[in-house]
Amino acid sequence: MKFYINEKKYNKVFMNKKIKYIYHLAFVFFLSIMLINCEAKVSSHGKVIESHNYNKLEIGKSDVYDVIRILGKPSFMGAFGSRKFYYDRFILEKVVASKTNVQKRELYILTFDENNVLESINLNDEKNDNDLKIISEKTPTPGDKITVIEQVLSNLRKK
Q1: Mind listing the pLDDT tens digit for each residue in 141-150?
Q2: Which of 18, 32, 139, 141 sits at a 20 to 30 Å CA gap from 3?
Q3: What mean pLDDT value characterizes the chain?
Q4: 92-101, long-range: CB within 8 Å, 24+ apart, which pairs?
Q5: Cβ atoms within 10 A of the Cβ of 133, count?
Q6: How confident is the model at residue 6 (pLDDT cuts 50, 70, 90)?
Q7: Quick check: 65 and 110 in contact, CB under 8 A?
Q8: Within 13 Å of residue 92, how many CA atoms lie on the same side as its CB?
Q9: Cβ atoms of residues 44 and 90 within 8 Å
Q10: Is the pTM of this model over 0.85?
């Protein structure tokens, strides 16, 4: 008894198995890439104040220029002549399909007297953050939202 193998049928079955194997490999590859990308992303924002630099500052002796030379330019300065420098730092963690969480927050507040000599240094962090409130809402600005009629009139005015 001799077996007859239809080559066309055999090649078709063999190719189907080969294609299935390639699809499975591609699926596993893309699934592994997606799982790798599901890891949380940690980012740091702001100015890092090293302890050896922080220890160089002397209350009552260091002036504004010493502070800028040692710590660098502040993140922001106090308004309305408050004579305060603010150095802030945030470490944020963004988990995939979730909101961003603050892992660590430091805000150094340096106050100067009327002679620009360092008067005090305060640290606000997540442990004593009762004074600091993070507002997630946007600050409203006039002209931020315009109506359809205002948009049409604005376009006509441009022509």
Answers
A1: 666 677 777 7
A2: 18
A3: 77
A4: 92/42, 92/43, 92/44, 92/45, 93/40, 93/41, 93/42, 94/40, 94/41, 94/42, 94/43, 95/40, 96/37, 96/38, 96/39, 96/40
A5: 6
A6: low
A7: no
A8: 11
A9: yes
A10: no
Contact 60/117 with Cβ under 8 angstroms?
yes
Residue the block writes with tokens 């100015």: 47
Alpha helices by DSSP H, listed for the chain, are 7-36, 51-54, 64-71, 148-158
How far is it, in rounded angstroms, from Cα 56 to Cα 18?
69
Based on the number of CB atoms within 10 Å of its own CB, is 21 exposed (0-12), middle (13-18) or buried (19 or more)? exposed
* 45-70 exposure pattern, b = at least 16 Cβ within 10 A, e = fewer: eebebeeeeeeebeeeebebebbeeb
Cα separations in angstroms, 71 against 62, 79, 118:
12, 20, 13
Return phi, psi of residue 99, to 5°.
-85, 165
Q: Determine contact, residues 95/101, Cβ cutoff 8 Å.
A: yes
pLDDT in tens, 15-25: 677 777 888 88
Taking residues 51-65, report their average pLDDT.
87
